[in-house]
Structures are given as C-alpha cells and as structure tokens.
Amino acid sequence: MNFRANPLNIEGCYSASLSSFEDLRGNFQKLYQSKKFQSFLPNFEPKEIYMTSSSKNVLRGMHFQIPPDDHEKIVICLNGKLQDVLLDLREGKNFGKSTYQILSPNNTNMMIIPKGIAHGFYSFEANTKLLYLVGSEYNQEKDTGIKWNSFNFDWHNSSPILSNRDIKLQNFSDFSIPEQWRINYVNKSE
Questions:
Q1: Cα 49 to chain center, whole Å?
Q2: Residues contacting 165, CB < 8 A, separation 6+
C-alpha cells in the first residue's frame, strides 16, 4: 500500500493520497492496511465501516462522539468532490482551530483524524461518496456535534442542505471539553 500523508495544521491530523494500480482491466486501490496507519493512529482498529452518499450542496457535520466512545476516523472520498473540515476540540493552544482539505478520488482523497476532532464536510457535486473507517462503535448517547456555522470557518455557502439533527447541534461557544480530552490530549508543546 502506497500513500503520501501530509500533516495538517492541527496536531495528529493528516491528509493523504492513496495510489492506485491501473491497467487495461481498470484499477486496483488498497484502502487500508493496519501496519501502514500505526504511525498515525497507533491503536486504531476499525470497529465500524460505513459510507455516505451526498447530493450537491449538502453539509454534514460537525460530528464527534464524546468519551469513552470517542473515536479516530479515516475518511476516504470514493466519488465526487468535497471540502472536508476538521475542528480541534482538545484542550490546548489549538482548541477551536479548524482546517480543511478538498477531497476527490483523483487527488487528495483521505483524511486521518484522531480523537477529539469534530469532522464535517460540504459536497460540491452530486453523488459524492465518503467511506468511513471508525475506531469505535456508534453510541447514540455519546454522539454529538458542533453547529456548522458557530465556529470560525468560511464554508462559502450560507444556506447548505442540512439534516434536522445538524440544524439542532450545539454552538461552539456552548461546548465544554470532556475531562478525558483535558488529561489525554493537552498539546505537548505548551
């Protein structure tokens, strides 16, 4: 498995480009190999794998689960084009910092996301598909998020298509850092 991982401006977060093998039959692409991801997410083991398919102008996010069911994610764009957005919710100098990457199958197509990071995306094209490898199982009681327009990020669209759930998420200003993210994720450079 070959891929190039590039560190983002939020500690522990990476974008990556998966390579593919092509011949007259089509192409082959390995999406995950445990030992290749150990240096990025040392204890990562996928517990769930799922996929979203989104229409143009759909915004999903900003989602995360709180401890003890918080999770690491690897997300891979299989089709379409999207703006993938991360928001650091861990205590430290990067708390509230956001970053993004444009993902598509033919370019940068993967994000590596540690615990303590909210994740969301905006779909630029119809039938945009995003595959998720998630390090914990879904727990409805621990599943939450931050309202998409309540933190310092310009989505370049003031009226995206949203789910009822995402419309009702808490504002960033109302978010309280879980104790586990205070103890385990304080930035080492402080």
A1: 13
A2: 145
Chain centroid to CA 12: how far? 12
Bridge partners, 112 (sequence order): 14, 74
The first and second tokens of residue 29, run together, are: 């692409």
78 touches 131 (CB < 8 A)? yes
DSSP reduced 3-state for 112: strand
Give every CB contact of residue 119 below 8 A, 6+ residues apart in sequence: 61, 62, 63, 64, 73, 75, 84, 85, 86, 87, 111, 113
Q: Distance (Å, rounded) from C-alpha 67 to C-alpha 75?
A: 20
Q: Is 167 left (phi over 0), alpha (psi -120 to 50) or beta?
A: alpha
Alpha helix segments (H runs only) across the chain: 34-37, 164-167, 179-184
Please state the pTM of the whole predicted model: 0.91
Name, in order, each residue with C-beta under 8 angstroms of 116's C-beta and a sequence gap of 6 or more. Answer: 64, 70, 88, 89, 90, 181, 185
- Report the alpha-carbon distance of residue 119 to residue 110 in Å, rounded: 13
Between β-strands 82-88 and 117-123, what pairing exists: parallel, antiparallel or unpaired? antiparallel
In whole angstroms, give the CA distance from residue 113 to residue 172.
19
Digit-coded pLDDT (tens) for 7-64: 999 999 999 988 777 888 987 878 888 888 888 999 899 999 999 999 999 999 999 9
